[in-house]
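W.,

You were right to be curious about this one. When I first looked at the sequence I had no strong expectations either way, so I just let the prediction run and decided to look at it fresh. Below is the sequence, 425 residues in total, followed by the output.
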Amino acid sequence: MKRLWGLLLWAAWPAVGLQAADTSFYIEPRYGAAEAAQIRSLWLGNLGAPPTDPGNRVADDPRAAALGRLLFFDPRLSRNGKVSCTRCHQPEHGFSDPAPLSRGVGMTTRNSMTLIGAAWQNWFFWDGRKDSLWSQALGPLEAANEHGLDRMSAARLLAAHYHAAYEPLFGKLPEVRDSTRFPPRASPLGNANERRAWQHMSEADRASVSHSFANLGKSIAAWERTLSLAPSRFDRYAEALARNDSAAMRASLSPDEVAGMRLFIGPARCIQCHNGPLFSNGEFHSTGVRFSGHADDAGRSGSLQAVRRDEFNCLGAYSDAQPEACAALRFLPENWPGKPGAFKVPTLRNISRTAPYMRTGEFATLQAVLDHYNAGSRIAYASERTELIPLKLDRRELDQIAAFLGALESGISERRAPAAGGAQP
């Protein structure tokens, strides 16, 4: 029954935005070599397969992906048994959360980022405090206001329901039924009782539980790596441009969408940060949101030490990577060299599905986001607070950019993996 539900869920996801463009009164645009090259650089066909993850040896193992899929949709991975990963990463909303601030067992302080394109990123969360997809998957599980799960309970869930799928991949699970060694609840990040119980465990038993916890995250990441995007209407346009197929270009984008695309790569300067086939450079920029709407948030400047101290980082004991494979972390600067309040640039793929916008979720519509950028931010133009420069575009131009962003809609699918042998959901 669980497998049938999963198949029905995937089949129900809408592939919106794939309708043919209105080609009435279409005037064929002429592109210079540089402009055409910029358009082609955004084509989804340039993306390729996800880069290898040296910290996760099962990153591309279909057995791990099958296990990770079950774990992703399992609400038992929470303190109250009601919060699965889909609470904040909803498939029908582009694997994001339609609420401004996400709610698990409690309220968070940020909007959940989409998982679209996550497998191609180097840093995770709005502030980049995690350096791999598998370590990112672990963060919400132990966060008191998200899943609120203690580490020992995660190991018990694996032993009770997933041991047949887990052990062929990772080896024996801890003997969690031995209550003299493994208390009912224990965690280095839990409440006072859970922290006390964790410290009373032997170092070897703590390590065995943490290894199983890390492997849980690696399995979820393996499944998330199977998520893939179908080409959007923009991609069909870019591909047609490359082969000089005027008819296919006219059938793919409307005149307003083409105008918005040219503004996007030109006067609006969107492509400076939203570049490449994922429409994101994966870096961190200050756009003034830190100083509006909600409490001050240091962003990237506050995460550098957190990612260095993370026990699940690339250089940690639970990573499968050799130290030389962890260059991004090894050469991470001690201090953030940019402006304060810098946050990660999100992908614009399927942006129409992932409202509200910004890490605070304070902008309900794309029009509000574009107004923010057009004004140079709503707060101040002080150079020490934001990188934004007012665009001074008119309303028609802003609407054309919004129309172009709508042409980035496409279906989401998963590369199917065989069923996890023996897993009992």
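Here's what jumped out at me. The mean pLDDT is 89. And, maybe more interesting for your project: The chain has 15 helices and four strands.

Coffee later to discuss?

I.
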